[in-house]
Amino acid sequence: MTRPLLEVRDLCVDFAGETGVVAAVAGVSFSVSRGETLVIVGESGSGKSVTSLAIMGLIPKPPGRISSGEILFHARGGGTHNLTRADARTMQQLRGAEIAMIFQEPMSALNPVYTIGDQIIETLRLHEPLSRRAARVRAIEMLALLGVPDPARRVDAYPHELSGGLRQRAMIAMALSCNPSLLIADEPTTALDVTVQAQILELISKLQRQLSMGVIFITHNLGVAAEIADRILVMYAGQTVEAAPARAIFEDTRMPYTRGLLNSIPRLGMDRDAGPLPTIPGIVPNLSEMPAGCAFHPRCAHARPEPCTVRRPDLEQVGDQHVVRCARWREIAREMS
Amino acid sequence: MTALLEVAELVKHFPTKGSLFRAGPPLQAVAGVSFTVKRGEVLGLVGESGSGKSTLGNMVLRLDQPTAGRIVFDGQDITHVPDSALGAFRRRAQPIFQDPYGSLDPRMTVEQIVAEALVIHRLAQGRKAIRDQAAGLLELVGLNASQLSRYPHQFSGGQRQRIGIARAMAVKPELIVADEAVSALDVSIQAQIVNLLRDLQRRLGLAMIFISHDLAVVEYIADRVAVLYLGRIMEIAPARAIVRTPKHPYTEALLSAVPEPDPGRGRKRIVLQGELPSPTAPPSGCVFRTRCAYAISDCAKVVPELLEVAPGHRAACIRTGIL
To answer: Does this complex have an ipTM over 0.95?
Structure first.
């Protein structure tokens, strides 16, 4: 197997809060290869966005800091960078040219007082020796590649003149303009209509194949994950609780939390007379009030006082490339069958 | 039985900026929508951003004044009743909004938020009575009465939505307009809130307009569903029929775009091409034809009528047989 593009090893990110230091990410490891899509799934507060910000070197310090772990990025040029220790200059060179990020809210990434063309051109010329005219041609090509209708005209539009879906495309065009090898997409479709979401998901898969990028896609919706994932990593309270090839997550679910997430997605054609929607009771624990034992046990229907409330479970191998953090996974599999 | 709410040929135009001395063409947010909602019935409104679903909800609540058309609530035409005389209606028809962060005053405790409605509508008098009722309402929505003196920021997103629901329920409404009430929530919390709304709606016999872009949620909670596109109803039918036997190509496309957690599913995906046309210059004939896979030249000439295609099932498409 070829060397992965990105390797995250035992990443820990702390935040200093009013009530002391909390671990937003508490030991997460994964890797992404070229041409592969890893989807990180979790609810608000699971640490999925903090993980992606750590890779981009965008953790606000203070109050945040990467307290331990490594983020190894193998750049196109051949060099390997440990992003947890890279200096500001190196990070700036990597961001945009090698690693790009798109966000849920395109207005947070687009500057309202510049046209989208200006912003794509600026990104291009920051990383490549291009004349303004050549960069403008490339910007129009990028918008066309992203399915923006009438790109030669839209290149001169301000962000507020575009619909939500077009803005999202403009932001993706900006992110992809320097042909990055790794794209991090943080809930890029959550604020969009389902029809636009379907378009954007198709677009990201298509571009990923064309440009052979590695993609880290972050979402709280396993339905969205099913559309694009090669592998899925489920996070809860700052840790990986299950990770596997996409198919195994859906067809051979091991972690009760993953099952809960799957079951709570409303599906078309449900029989509503069969009773209420399955839910996961309770809420994600506050990071400063983490329960003892398994972090998920207060919400878990399978939890037992022993061992779930006393010992924090380790990540165990349960199948080919399939790991789960549940002390009772064997018994639960038996109970379910 | 007569309907609790009847909406007839409702139209809403927003002015747009034109050139100096001349207004732009009006933005037709809602262009002639009619429907009824019976007591105890849930009508789902689905459509993309720009379909006019929220404007429609706001007009029903008289938060937006219709440009034309009629709103009849419990036999009374309220379209032109002045705001000052709408007090009783404001109690009987309550909104639940998408953003539980934006719709709760951060400086008020939960008790004050819930009690405000009780006081305005004189539904409780005396501190103890108000507090007891507020406590009861919190418990109704699955919160704890001990949380009465907390502030909104001390709650999670799902809990804040519960507070919003408690506030709406405080005045014993007959009609609820829930506009994207669960869209901003994580999936596991979304299911909790959908269950709560459905349980309250059934237990209290409420009529509800449930506005959402998520067809799976709408199918679950609604008895009937209206599919909106560019301010017009494309199709209206019992929820089950909308999902199992859609008769309008737009409904079919919306259904196929719903992401489902089943990677092995061999579903036909219809990705709608292009963008929603501008509501200031809607296409001639059928407004959906510019993005419709089945459009023929006749579609540009005729404005399709909303016609019955099966009992209780109406669709506005000259090619309904095609699906």
So the answer is: no
Q: Does B293 reside within a domain?
A: yes
| B199/A283 Cβ within 8 A | no
**Nearest Cα residue to B212 out of B201, B200, B193:** B193
Inter-chain contacts counted by CB atoms under 8 A, chains A and B: 132
Residue of B nearest to A272 (CA): B220
Task: With respect to residue B88, please indicate whether it lies within any of the assigned structural domains.
Answer: no
Which value, to the nearest 10 degrees, does the dihedral of the CA atoms of residues A247, A249, A253, A254 take? Answer: 130
Environment class of residue A38 by beta-carbon count within 10 Å: exposed (0-12), middle (13-18) or buried (19+)?
Answer: buried
- Using an 8 Å CB-CB cutoff, list chain A residues near B182: none
A151 in contact with chain B, both atoms CB, cutoff 8 A: no
- Domain tally, chain B: 1
Q: Which tokens in the block code for residue B146?
A: 């001990």
pLDDT, tens only, A254-312: 999 999 999 988 888 888 888 888 888 887 888 888 899 999 999 999 999 989 999 99
Predicted TM-score (pTM) of the model is: 0.87
Statement: residue B1 has pLDDT above 80: no
In a domain, B13, yes or no: no
B11 found inside a domain: no
pLDDT higher than 80, residue A224: yes
Distance CA A314, CA A299 (A): 18
Boundaries of domain holding B307: 246-323
- Partner residue opposite B48 with nearest CB, options A44, A193, A276: A193
Contact list in A for residue B157 (CB cut-off 8 A) is 44
- CA–CA min distance A286, chain B (Å): 10
**Tens digits of per-residue pLDDT, A101-146?**
998 777 778 888 999 999 999 988 988 889 999 999 999 988 888 7
